[in-house]
Amino acid sequence: MKTREEKSQEVSELSEQIGKASNAFLIDFKGITVPQVTELRKQVRQANSGYVVVKNTLALIALKDSPIIGMKEQFTGPTAIAFNSTDAVVLAKALTKFAKDVPAVQFKGALLAGQVVPANQIASIANLPSRNELIAKLLYLMQHPIRGLATVLQGNLRNLAVLLNEIQKQRGASAEATE
Fold it and tell me: Which of 54, 138, 172, 174 has the most crowded CB, counting CB atoms within 10 A?
C-alpha cells in the first residue's frame, strides 16, 4: 500500500507532466506484453512525447484543472496516457501504427489542442500531414509564383543578351565587309 504522501507525490508528478500537455491520447492496454509496452514507449519517445500508465482515481485528481478532465468517463479499466505539447499528428501516427501491429491496444479518446476527440476519429488524425509537412507545403506554395516570375524575367534578359550579341555580330560582319 502506498502512503498518503506517496500518493500526493504521484498526483503532483502527473499534474506537472500531463496537466500542461495540449495533446493526450488515452489508451487501453489490457492484453499487451511487456516487450510490446517497451516498444510502444520507444516509439512514443521517438515522437518527442511521453507515456505513463496511470491509476484512474489519482489521474482524475491530478488532472482536475486540466482540459483532459473532459474525458473523465474514459478513465475506466487499465489506462495509459501518451502526451505531448508539440505535434499531435506525429504522436497519433506513432500510436495508430503501433495499434495496427498490436490489436490489444485500444484508444479510449484523445485531447488535441485542448479539444476532446472521440476514439473513432484518431485514425483520421493520423492520416493528416505533420506540422513540418504542412509548413513545407506552405513555403513551396509561397515560393512558386516568385520562382515563376524570376524564370520569366531571366528568360527576357537572356533573350535580350542573345539579341544584342547577334546585333554586334552583324555590325562586326558589315564593318569587315566595308573594309
Answer: 54
pTM reported for the whole predicted model: 0.65
- Residues 69 and 58: their CA atoms lie apart, in Å, by 12
Residue 22 makes CB contacts below 8 A (sequence gap 6+) with: 84, 85, 88, 111, 112, 113, 114
What pLDDT was estimated at residue 80? 86
Q: 116 with 109: CB under 8 angstroms? A: yes
Using DSSP bridges, classify how beta strands 79-84 and 50-54 pair: parallel, antiparallel or unpaired: antiparallel
Distance of alpha carbon 83 from the chain centroid: 12
What is the torsional sign of CA 73, 74, 79, 80? Answer: negative
DSSP string, 135-175: HHHHHHHHHHHHHHHHHHHHHHHHHHHHHHHHHHHHHHHHH
Q: Which amino acid is at 136?
A: A
Residues pairing with 83 in the sheet: 24, 50
Q: What is the pLDDT of residues 60-107, one digit of tens each?
A: 777 777 777 777 787 888 888 888 887 788 888 888 888 888 888 888
Nearest residue to 40 via CA among 10, 21, 13, 31: 31
Q: How many helices (H) and strands (E) are present in the chain, helices listed first?
A: 6, 5
